[in-house]
Amino acid sequence: MRAIPWFLLSFLLLAAPAVAQEGGEPKVAPNAYPGVAEIVPRGSQLAGLFTQQEAEIASFTETSTIEAQISKARELQKDIIAQSAESGELSGLGQNRLQEVLGRFEEQNRSLGKVLETLSGRLSQLDKIRRAWSDKKEVWLGWEKNLQQGEVDYPKDEFRRTIALINQGVERASNASLPLVALQKELTGLQNKNQEHLSQIEAALKNVRGKVFSKTAPSFANPDFYRQFNAELWSAARESVKSALIVRKEFWSKQGWIVTLQVLVALVLPLYLRRYRSKRELAPEWGFLLDHPWATGIFVSLFFLRGFYTNLPVLPELIFNLFSLGAGSVLVAALATNSRQKLLVWLLAPLLFLSLGLWAIAFPQPLLRAFLALNSLVGVPLLLFLARIESRRQEPKGRRFATLLRLGTAVLLASLFAQAAGFSTLALRLLLSTLGTVFLWLFAAIAIRIGAGGIEFLVRHDILRQYDFFKRSGSELAVRLKTLFRALVMIYALFFLPVMWGLYDSVGQVWQSLQGWELPLGEGRLDASSVVLAFLVLYLSFQVSWFLQALLEAEYFPRRGLQRGVRSSIKRLLHYSLCLVGFLLAVGLLGIELKHFVVLGGAFGIGIGFGLQNIVNNFLSGLILLFERPVKLGDVIVLDSEWGTIVKIGLRSTVVETLDRSEIIVPNSQLISEKVTNWTLSSKTARVTLSVGVAYGSDVSKVLEILKEAGEQHPEVLSALPPSAIFVGFGESSLDFDLRVWIGDIGKRLQVRSEIGQFIDMRFREEGVEIPFPQRDLHLRSVDPAVGRGEVGPSGD
Length: 797
Hints:
This protein is an alpha+beta fold and 797 residues long. It has 5 domains: 175 residues, Glutathione S-transferase Yfyf (Class Pi), Chain A, domain 2, CATH 1.20.1050; 246 residues, no CATH class; 77 residues, no CATH class; 73 residues, Roll (SH3 type barrels); 82 residues, Alpha-Beta Plaits, CATH 3.30.70.100. The chain is built from 25 helices and 10 strands. α18 runs antiparallel to α19.
């Protein structure tokens, strides 16, 4: 013990100089250079490295591909600028044309960014080579100086030759960077020019959106409106149609594969559906699809693959709108409940197609206004007529449909009045957005039915039904997948609504705008995208937990022969673990550090001290039940003289089902702290006792023989534990006997008791053994004499 202080003192004294040295200026050790024998070999290695890097630098300076890409980008830029110039001033272009030109510029900027990234990578490699040669030069110069200071005889020519080689490597890497830098500047110039046009287009789009509530054309009462109908107007209409028929070659080269895929889906899917027309039970939601396979194929190919396109030209967009509205209308009409709904669908679909088409090709404004006004004049009385018929129906659906028709009438009237007053942009936006919203929700409903039917079809297919998982949990899996698919379609439709109403150009912009919403949270900020991702992680953790539990229950547990309680414990531990992981990931996505939970833990501790003891006690007792397993699922217990079976063990309480099918909620702490009789803890074997009394004078040996026979003949009685018939004693009215038998399943205890009792009664009747009634002696004392004479009082009592 005395040596410890001296050891500590010695340690501190030895450590002090080291600490002092660390706190001062570090001492630089002299460079250790190789000897003279290494000069020639290392010079040869550098020569080989120079030759190798010459080839590498040559590959970096091969810019023919990049120059071709730049030249193509330059021509494409001229084409885009020419396209916007042909359409007139940006301020006069429609929103659709502006978005098309904007998309082309953005697409080219992305392509230029990829080329620029390639150039930057090459320049970084060349700079790395140059720095490496510079470092080698410094090493060789220092090596030579060291040899000179040591007055060592060394091959000076070898040093001069090696240093000259190193200088050549530095120069070669530097010179190779010059043409790449020039190309980089050219690319940057193209990007800057694109950015200028992008800024102008974005300003024009902002201007167009800002004019929604502004008067943008002469009213119908103004003579200037009618003066616009001249030869130039019709010439402009022909030019707008002509320009819409032009499809750029770059579209077919970059996105032609999507068109090919859509055509294949539209042709193959109907043939596949026709094979299952007679098997509607596999997917009940697909009834209307199986009746219209070709419309289904076209709708699926256009609706589900449309998102792969970027910056669609006018003509392909018109063709896609035509086929998607046509096929979608066929499917929507198949779901309509009456002829008036079908008529409305077939009237609205062409109206939406023509309105979108004329707007997309930048049709002259006076003609477009006249077309929309004429449609409003025809549509208002038609919708009122249909609403009046539907309102006469007594069904709630008819009244709701009539309300929707009246809302449509109000929209048409508002659009008509806006057109008449000169608010053409507002009228166009109101009509197109309303029609688009109607068909968006109709198509979303069809997509949900298609997806739900597809999920049901896959889950019920014979190939998947071969697996136990799909036999046991296929229906539940289908329900969960349908819910998820329905949520995804509805969320996408909600994201598409702002695009439909002209507030954003794409769903991506809606998501970016949503990401910009932030909420102060302590020292950080909580944005909407983090909340969405955190919710998604939590949801997926619960779904993955269910999937793994179901998979274990169907595929793994039966092969291992695990007991029901063990299965429950494994599944519950898996569920808690996955939920905990999901919670921690969600908390991390929200930007909440785990150290903040210390404060919550303190508050939780105070809460426990004031009033949460029972909750925490039950929770901890639930964990004890999970690991120690004094009771488990399926156990038959007796609690407070009540027989029951455990059907669920939760975090806070356990559910016990009694013999009459009522359920008792028992706190977990009660199962741990109080006395509980568990009839099936280690085994389901149980003893059944049946008490029988016979009349005095009966043959005791015969009674014992019958009782033993009754036990032995029953199939549920265990042969390893033979029945036991016992003469218990002399009762007040009978000779008392007990029959004790052992059965393998306590759940059949009452059934066995009843069947053995019936057999004993039958055998007693056959053998003449009597079961006596209880005997009682009655003693009469202090009886009124009037009772014996039968006298009755005045009141008749």
